[in-house]
Amino acid sequence: MIDRARPRWTWNGAPGTPEVVDDGRRTGDRPHNVGAAAALYLVNGAPVIAYQDGLDADVYVATRSGTGWSTTGIATGPVLDGFSIGATTGHGSPVLAWGALDPARDPIGQLVIESP
Q1: pTM, whole model, 2 decimals?
Q2: Positive/negative CA dihedral, 16, 70, 43, 115
Q3: Rg, Å, the chain Cα set
Q4: Buried b (16+ CB within 10 A) or exposed e, 5-33
Q5: How far is CA 10 from the centre of its chain?
Q6: 44-80 pLDDT per residue, tens
Q7: Fewer CB in 10 Å around end: N or C, the chain?
Q8: How far apart are CA 98 and CA 85, in angstroms?
Q9: CB neighbours of residue 58 within 10 Å
Q10: What are the domain boundaries of the chain?
Q11: Contact, 112 vs 98, CB < 8 A?
């Protein structure tokens, strides 16, 4: 049984506490549901998270620097991105892949592969 009242998070073997990576606040808009299709990977030993903004279906990448996180939109706009994000760093630079829906293309479903 998992004791949800006392989660035991660790990083490099040291106990830690959960951190807010993206609170979903967007300037001029209501809070967004963020974190869907999340993929966690390491770059130079530091954690990076690729995830979807559930309200506008954009793909974001969050990087940890110092004691906080910074987020960058890597696929934003009218195309619906981010369904089932995968990530790898097995061959050097990180590579992300996700599904995109673009009604202006035929077929509308696309596989996007990008190195952020």
Answers
A1: 0.81
A2: positive
A3: 16
A4: eeeeeeeeeeeeeeeebbeeeeeeeeebe
A5: 20
A6: 888 899 999 999 999 999 998 877 899 999 999 989 9
A7: N
A8: 5
A9: 21
A10: 9-114
A11: yes
